[in-house]
């Protein structure tokens, strides 16, 4: 038979254990809530600005026809004309979440290269023939403007997944100059400059996932594959990044990007084809507010 003193001790012990369990449960709830809040900070920003340095490997092949379709020479800009197959490019992206489910993104990317090489075969570029052994100076500059409106089909404190509609507007400026033959007449200096603006509509997918309150994985893909006006072919833009949110507003990211154009162009002032690929790593810093 238990004594009153023993009974009180048991009750006190049970009370202590109960209080301890309650405290542990409360601590766990607070930790989970705090973690969820930290995760949610990645997804509740109204706007963000990302500035990056992109270091791609580039492969570009271009054919510019003259009056007769198919008359131009397909030129490998790296091996034939001596353009660098690597470059460092700046890029900037602005994002704005204007509702719980919708977002707007605007991005700018620039690639500029130039080179000089003595060619080992005849090259026909827009009715100008550059003979073998001629030294050509060339440049190929690309400015990419991307805009898209995205809708988040899934959005939780730790993940987001959605689709987008947008447009890629790319300006290509190519310049080739050197000794050549224009309409059968030899010239010590013949220059051809092509400046074309290519607007392509795109559809895409985007996603994000928080691995920890500080680490976040993001990715997107945009593509076009059809005949649109004077353009036929496809565009693919994919990128993935791991970002480290070292303060509530600032983050650093390491990413990888792949872009491919396969286009045939048939316009009044330009007929030709282009196969253009660039891919590589990027380093960026973002500010969210």
Kindly describe this structure.
The protein is mostly beta strands and 289 residues long. It contains one helix and 14 strands; from the N terminus they run αββββββββββββββ. It has one helix spanning 4-40; strands spanning 47-54, 57-65, 75-76, 89-96, 102-118, 123-125, 128-130, 135-155, 159-182, 185-210, 215-228, 231-244, 250-266, 271-288. The protein has a ten-stranded antiparallel beta barrel. Strand 11 and strand 12 form a beta hairpin. The chain is elongated.
Number of strands: 14
What percent of residues adopt helix (DSSP H or I)? 10-25%
Over all CA atoms, what is the radius of gyration?
29 Å
- Count of helical segments? 1
Mean pLDDT: 86
Strand content: over 45%
Gross geometry = elongated
Class based on secondary structure composition and strand pairing? mainly beta
Largest sheet: 10 strands, antiparallel, barrel
> In whole angstroms, how far apart are the ends?
69 Å
Low-confidence stretches: 5-16, 25-38
Which strands sit side by side, in order, in the main sheet? 1-4-5-8-9-10-11-12-13-14
Strand/helix succession:
HEEEEEEEEEEEEEE
């Amino acid at each position: 038979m238990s004594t009153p003193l023993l009974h009180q001790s048991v009750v006190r012990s049970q009370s202590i254990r109960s209080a301890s369990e309650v405290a542990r449960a409360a601590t766990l709830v607070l930790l989970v809530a705090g973690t969820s809040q930290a995760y949610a900070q990645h997804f509740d920003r109204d706007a963000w600005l990302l500035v990056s340095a992109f270091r791609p490997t580039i492969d570009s092949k271009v054919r510019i026809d003259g009056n007769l379709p198919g008359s131009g020479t397909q030129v490998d800009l790296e091996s034939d004309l001596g353009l660098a197959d690597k470059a460092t490019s700046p890029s900037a992206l602005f994002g704005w979440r204007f509702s719980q489910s919708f977002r707007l993104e605007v991005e700018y990317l620039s690639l500029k290269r130039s080179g000089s090489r003595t060619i080992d075969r005849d090259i026909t570029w827009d009715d100008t023939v550059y003979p073998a052994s001629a030294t050509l100076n060339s440049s190929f500059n690309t400015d990419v403007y991307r805009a898209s409106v995205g809708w988040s089909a899934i959005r939780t404190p730790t993940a987001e997944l959605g689709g987008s509609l947008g447009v890629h507007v790319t300006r290509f400026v190519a310049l080739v100059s050197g000794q050549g033959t224009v309409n059968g007449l030899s010239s010590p200096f013949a220059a051809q400059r092509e400046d074309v603006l290519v607007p392509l509509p795109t559809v895409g997918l985007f996603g994000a996932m928080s691995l920890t309150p500080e680490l976040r994985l993001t990715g997107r893909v945009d593509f076009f594959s059809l005949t649109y006006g004077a353009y036929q072919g496809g565009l693919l833009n994919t990128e993935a990044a791991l970002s480290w949110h070292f303060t509530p507003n600032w983050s650093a990211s390491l990413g990888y990007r792949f872009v491919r154009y396969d286009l045939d162009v048939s316009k009044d002032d330009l007929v030709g084809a282009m196969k253009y690929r660039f891919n590589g790593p990027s380093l960026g810093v973002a500010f969210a507010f």
